[in-house]
Amino acid sequence: MTTEESWQSVSPSRLTWPEVDPARHPFDATAAYDVVRAVAAPAPASPRWVDARLVGEDEAERWRAAVSHALVDRYGRWAGGWCWSVGEGDYDGGPVDGWCCAAHSITTEQETLTLIADSLIEWRHWLENLAERFDRLRPLPDARESPGDLAIAWEVAVAQLVNMTVDRTRSDSGWYGHCRQVLAWFLTAAGVPESRHRTLIGDAIGGRFRSWVEPTVAEVTEVAERLAHRIVGLPASEDAAQSARGTAGWPDTWPQGWPPRDRTVPSVSARPRDRTQNRRPDDLEAWQAARARVDWSTAARDVPGPARTSRDAIVDHVAQRPEGSQQLSAALAQVRRAAAEGGPLTFAQLAQWQRTVLGVPDVGFRAGPAWAKGGRERYHWHPDLSALFEKCLTEAIDDDLPLPSRAARVYLDVAFFHPFDDGNARSAMLALYYVLAREDVVLDRAAPLLVTVRQAHDKFGAAGLAKLIELLIDATRARMRS
């Protein structure tokens, strides 16, 4: 075997879905530590700096490669990803936190072997999380669905997978390579011929993703829509692509980066009302139908608190907003105090927090129809709407359902009931924060949760949101213990 062939045989960037699919490759995490100790040769000395030269780096890298070959021989090609670290490590742009690189991760014999086993388990968990997500998100053609509906299902799936990968790789050096790979894996799992993958994904991304730069909501949305339309065979939607680029000024359309400094937010009366043609006439009605079809009891496991580390990702997200961060931070403080006291979630509480968010003396339930996403979504109004919404809020603390399901559902309830004239995306975030904090859960990562555009009629996306919250809680709890 040549040096190039040897490298390719353990390179994680070249792995295909059949090679990593957990269903095809059994793995016992409890035995991983014993396996690593059995197959790894004695570790070399930790590389050290001598006169501005790192001595022992070549030996360390050869030993790491030998460990990879041994693990691949034992488990299969998928195991080569154990050292695919975040950022600039042995390979560029991976999802593994534990291992950094041969030059920095080799310490004592015992610590190094334990770190390898931990990293192998972490890599395997990532593959298992992806496999579970693929099963939930994979769009299945249905004779009752129009191509447009199927495209929307693909769009939601792609956006969630991109955001998951962004969060996992921290959008560090070379992160987009693994993002392309995850999308290709998903296409394989969904039955899209491999011969189409390169063109489909390349055309959709088109240079939008860059090292050390987290993609904006608009970029993720446009990539997801372009890929979805190409998979389904629909022509590219210039109207939708333009909306992803140019409607950041619409309140509640994107949860970050609006209003832009060079754009005036249109008034309610000026919002276009003819954009709902050829779409569902009432997105609130669509949400109520989707809400009823989701099995919230099984959408996620029950993972109650406590789960918190020293970081509050939602607080950090709010602090980075270019506009209104002080008001929203003050509202979050009010939510934390209310969560500590316990009790039900009510519209009166939401309205109190919303007054702080908007900096106005009074807010009430909207008295007429509402629009969002540049007029592409419309929510009708009827006299019983506020009472129905209040009932949905009381369900957010129903302990008979898993916490992630309740948090996801109330987030979407606020988004699609659209109770306020403005600030509904922020209100939805506060409601979710309250439901989690009430059970002592404070997420230390939340980007995939806050930056994905949700569709009112997407029951699969709603269930997927519950599962995403479950994964974020699990990850926070794992880091709490470490």
UniProtKB/TrEMBL annotation:
Residues 345-474 form the Fido domain. InterPro entries: Fido, Fido-like_dom_sf. Residues 238-281 are annotated as: Disordered. Residues 271-281 have a biased composition (Basic and acidic residues). SUPFAM superfamilies: Fic-like. This is Fido domain-containing protein. The lineage of its organism: Bacteria, Bacillati, Actinomycetota, Actinomycetes, Micromonosporales.
